[in-house]
User: Fold soluble epoxide hydrolase from Rubroshorea leprosula.
Amino acid sequence: MEGIEHRTLKVNGINMHVAEKGNGPVILFIHGFPELWYCWRHQILALSSLGYRAIAPDLRGYGDTDAPESVSSYTCFNLVGDLIGLLDAVAADQEKVFVVGHDWGASIGWYLCLFRPDKVKAYVSLSVPFRRINPATRVKPVDSLRAIFGEDYYMCRFQEQGEIEAEFAQIGIEEIMKEFLTYKLPDALRFPKGTKPFGHPRESPVLLPPWLSEKDIQYYASKFEKTGFTGAVNYYRNLNRNYELLVPWTGSQIKVPVKFVTGDQDLVYHMPGLKEYIHSEGGLKKDVPLLEEVVVMEGVAHFINQEKAEEINTHIFNFFQKFI
Assistant:
């Protein structure tokens, strides 16, 4: 990762580690689960060489950034507050920045656009679309997921404090990272209690795809060995709390230019009703009126920015160049 600089900054009451490279308009990269700044390594190198300043933090609870103990310290307000503090510290000279988010990072990117559109020039969301805020259903997210997918669904299994962390530790952090990052089934991810997770026998080795090396796995594993998974899964433990906090934004639209990119094998893309929402005129386009393009990449699964790094770099560059 030649030329990538690392530093730790005090933002929003925590110490946040950030990787950065380049000069020019800032692109803020927001990682997902279970990732780190490192998942953006290809984008940092490519976009910095094309005249941008790439900034990729470890989010709270991850890597070399602080991990507050309280579950309630991981709400959408905390996460966006961290990013605002980061931008104030590293990009005070820029009124607005470009933003790219993947997985949980995509959700946080949507929150940033919703709460502080004055900070965002344009947004590229990978994998996770904006979801209409509609508490009128009165069904909280975890309850809805449990009703649709059952108690074994991974987001439901993440709710009990300490439980999934113990299971992951028993399996082994390196093995867990391999399993997550190579998961390619579009089906719902389940972790039934008392059985092997990820749908295949533990004895069978996990074969790494060409875009993922043993060195990559070891880097991820080294950080999660140090922090554990509690901070990361605490994001999921705030799904219902976020639902309540977002009530004031009921019916709100995203008012920044957006490009959405996903893979046709992404498990998120195959969640019930999501394809219809993404592609219908009364769905995503209605809630994100400045949505310029939806791209569905063939044969690509969830970790799209790593699996198809060059193509994603091109999508990001071509879109952001419109606003220079």
In short: The radius of gyration is 19 Å. The mean pLDDT is 95.
